[in-house]
Automatic annotation (TrEMBL):
This is Cro/Cl family transcriptional regulator. Pfam families: P22_Cro. It comes from the Bacteria. It comes from Pseudomonas alkylphenolica. InterPro entries: Lambda_DNA-bd_dom_sf (IPR010982). GO terms for molecular function: DNA binding.
Amino acid sequence: MKTREVADFFGSKKKLAEALGIQPSAVTMWGELVPQSRQYQIQVLSKGRFQADHKSS
């Protein structure tokens, strides 16, 4: 799951952070990929538009 694609879906990194209840700086620190720990939250918030990556990291 790519950070940029998810941020675009929510409207911005700031709006993504607000949806997750975290600081925008935390989203910026993710880099290219959304951390596994946040992917399931995003899957629920996006109503399945984004699917969590089930690979072990």
